[in-house]
Specification:
The chain has 294 residues and is of the alpha/beta class. It has a single domain, classed as Ribokinase (UDP-N-acetylmuramoyl-L-alanine:D-glutamate ligase), CATH 3.40.1190. The strands form two sheets. A nine-stranded mixed β-sheet has the order 5-4-1-8-9-10-11-12-13, sandwiched between helices. It has a four-stranded mixed β-sheet with strand order 3-2-6-7. The protein is globular. α1 packs across α7 and α7 runs antiparallel to α8. The termini are close together.
Length: 294
């Protein structure tokens, strides 16, 4: 066990609205924080919600789950975020509503931050300069232990500044399609990952590959994992966030990287059996809590 404090998770909290009409609480950082809470990490989520019924639902859900809410900013001028989710060949696409409350996370309203925490953030929450500035302030306030999970959602990213999002990171997770976009100059996916890891001086990079599993690359080794064949897929929304939450858990518990990605793949393979990215049923997590001695 290392001496890291509970993680700080920065970024969007929103509702994923599905074609059938149901809306599920989500957003990649929120999903990661939700799973981390179930695993006992007590994360601090820093995000924004509207002064509206959906925002009230976010607060209630977090409190019912035992999560801290002091990092949640209530914005009277912008609504709680929504995403319209559609599917093609079982792969989700997202219409992310602009100018939502999480686009305006204010650096003036931050709670006290522990310098020994891991900071997690994605790239989507940086689409607005207000939240991007807030993240910069946070980075200057804590240790350089930053975990970045790239989420390239069109049109909310720009190839000219994507390196700005990740250059200060210590650990990086990215999917294969995104890696191909960011590093077009190498043919082999492992060579692309090695180039990015070395150019950013990362401690490790994890590349997820959908149905082909994932691999982690450190300074000396590469470790591959594969999904379980017996899983019934309901939808793949949030599978990457589930994977990330266990990567953070592994860092906090000082697990070896090969153990961490094996457990991350195990957990993500079960989350695709859920409708949406998370569940309020604590029994879903209990087999992992037991098997991993949490």
């Amino acid at each position: 066990m290392n001496n890291l404090s509970p993680p700080v998770v920065f970024g969007e909290v929103l509702y994923d609205c599905f074609p059938e009409g149901d809306c599920v609480l989500g957003g990649a950082p929120f999903n990661v924080a939700w799973h981390c809470q179930a695993f006992g990490l007590q994360p601090l989520l820093i995000s924004g919600i509207g002064d509206d019924s959906l925002g009230n639902n976010v607060i209630k859900a977090m409190r019912d789950w035992g999560m801290k809410t002091e990092g949640l900013q209530i914005d009277p001028e912008h609504a709680t975020g929504k995403v319209n989710v559609t599917f093609h060949d079982n792969e989700p696409s997202y219409d992310i509503i602009e100018d939502s409350a999480w686009d305006f996370i204010n650096s003036q309203n931050l709670p006290a931050l522990d310098k020994k925490c891991i900071l997690y953030h994605g790239s989507l929450a940086l689409r607005n300069s207000v939240s991007a500035h807030c993240l910069d302030v946070i980075k200057k306030s804590i240790s350089p232990s930053t975990f970045v999970d790239i989420n390239l959602r069109s049109p909310w990213w720009d190839s000219s500044n994507i390196y700005d999002y990740i250059q200060s990171s210590k650990w990086l997770k990215i999917n294969e399609d995104e890696l191909n976009i960011i590093v077009p100059e190498h043919e082999n996916i492992k060579n692309k990952a090695r180039y990015l890891k070395e150019s950013l001086n990362l401690e490790f990079i994890v590349v997820t590959q959908g149905g082909s599993g994932a691999f982690a690359m450190t300074h000396n080794d590469t470790f591959q994992v594969f999904p379980e064949n017996t899983v019934t897929i309901v939808d793949t929304v949030g599978a990457g966030d589930a994977f990330t939450s266990v990567l953070l858990l592994g860092l906090h518990k000082s697990w070896a990287i090969e153990k961490t990605i094996a457990r991350a793949q195990q957990f993500a393979s079960q989350v695709v059996g859920l409708r949406g990215a998370t569940t309020q049923n604590i029994k879903f997590y209990q087999p992992f809590i037991k098997d991993w001695n949490l």
